[in-house]
Structure formats: structure tokens, C-alpha cells
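Budget justification note: compute hours in this period were largely spent on complex prediction jobs such as the one shown. Inputs:
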Amino acid sequence: MNFNEKAGRVSGVSNIADEPDELDEALTEFRLSVYAWSEAAYSRTRTAVVPGRRRIWRLAAGWALGCVLVAGGGSAGVWEHHQHQQEMRITAARVAEQQRLAAQQQLWQEDEDLLAKVDSDVSRQVPAAMEPLGQLMVGDETR
Amino acid sequence: MAMAEEIGAEEFSAVVARHRVQIFRFLLASTRDVDLAETLTQDCFLKAHRNWKSFRGESSAMTWLMRIAINLQKDHWRNRRMQFWRHARTNAVDMGEASEWLPSGERSAEQQLLARERVHQVSKAVEGLSERQRTVFLLRYMEEAELSEIARATGLSEGTVKAHLSRAVAKVRAELGGRQ
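Corresponding output:
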């Protein structure tokens, strides 16, 4: 007897004759139960859910909203990046301007210092050169 | 060439129609999960279809299909990714589900109750068997396969099949004895 011939049989375990009565009976009942369970599970109706029109619209709207959100998020990121770049450029220009002004200021200061030094040198030398004239002026006063 | 393929496809369709219920039943009894049994049954026939040309008819088509089903079931539980689900299923599934399907027949309410209880005990015992013992036990006592067929389907020797069967029956008997 092969598998196929046995498939049609539902009851009777005559080929298990060695087993005690209760075990034989229990195994028969077990087999009957599994056969019935399997048959019920095998022939149960299976429902495939077809998405309705409203569901399709909802799905499409969901996708559209998702796309908008993604695009919005992306462009916001790009805009923010652009702003950041702009700010960086402005800051860099400001710093460069400040540095240029500081350098110019330093040059002016150096010029000022040089002129002041020349003035002080000249003021120290001129009195010595004018000494004889000064003495004449003192003699006139005593007279 | 196309003609031969057509004949092959027709043959295979006939095999599917003839054995699908039996394969599903075996997998349902082994896994006790309707969805899983359906999935594995489909996988079994898909695999069989792919290898149909290499089937040489050394054993019956049913034995060959049963062998594929047994291997698929083994692979399924061996798969590490399924360990969590296996654990969850073991904790969640009612042990005696088959008992709810026992045909009432000509029995009294009390007899039905006792019969259900017995089926529940057998289910519980089968659940507690090792994978190999369970396979051998179900093939023998549910599908009424001969020892030689079981040996071919499982790839074990007849002696090993006998040993597994003997241990499985002892466990079921012990479970039923504990109830009394």
C-alpha cells in the first residue's frame, strides 16, 4: 500500500495492531481530528482585499503629501545652506575690511611717529645753531 | 521539445492535484500553524516544479514530495531569523488545537469529551517529541506510511526509523498513561 492509496482512508489503524486498545483508539481519534482540521483549513475561503477607489485616492494623496514634504525638506536644506554660505562670505569680507583698516591705521601711526621724531630732533638742534644770535640778544638787553 | 514540456507540465499539475492535500496535512500536523503550513506547501511544490525534470521516479512522487516537505520544514526551523517567531509561536499556540476538530460521530457528550481529552494528550505528546521522532510518528500513524517509505522520505535507515518510532510511541503512551 502506498501513500496515495492511504490518502483516501480516514479511519482504522489496522496496521498498528500491536498497540494496546486505548493507544490505538487515541491515535485513530488524533488522526481523525487532524484530517478534519486540515480539510477545514485547506478549504477555507481566502479573501483577497482589492483596494477601493477611495483607498487608491488616499494612497495617492499620501504619496503626494510625502513627495511635497520630502521636496520641501530638501529645498529648505538647500536654502539654509545657501544662507549659511552668504553669511560666511559677509563675515569674511567684514574681517578683511577690519584688517585693512587696522593696517592703514598702523601706517598712519608710523608716519605720525616719524614726523614727531623729526620735529623733536629739529627742535633740539636749532637752539644750538642759533646760540650766537641768542647771545647778541642777551647783550642788547643788558645795555 | 515544446510537446515534451507540455506533457511534463500536465503531469506535474496532476501530481499537485493528487498530493497537495496530503502534504499540507502533514505540514499542518508538524507545525500546527495553518499559515506556515500553507507557505511551506507552496514552497514544496515550487521546489518540486523546479526539479521535476530531475525526478527519476525511483520512489513514488508522494515520497519524493514528502522528502522535500520534510527538508523545507527542517530548514525553516533551522533558520536563525525565525528563532524568535518559533519561540513566540511555542508560547502562543494552543497545544490541543486538533482536538477541537474531532468529528462527533455517534458518541455521547461524555464520550466526546473523553475523546477530545485523549486527542489533546496525543497532541501534547507529539509536540514534545524531537523533530525526527515527530516526523516519523506522523508519517506512520497519520499518513499510515510503511517503514520503507518513511525511510526513503526521511533519508534514514529502516532500523533508525523503527527506533525513533518506538521512542515516540513510548512517549505518547506515557502521556496517555499519565492522564489515567
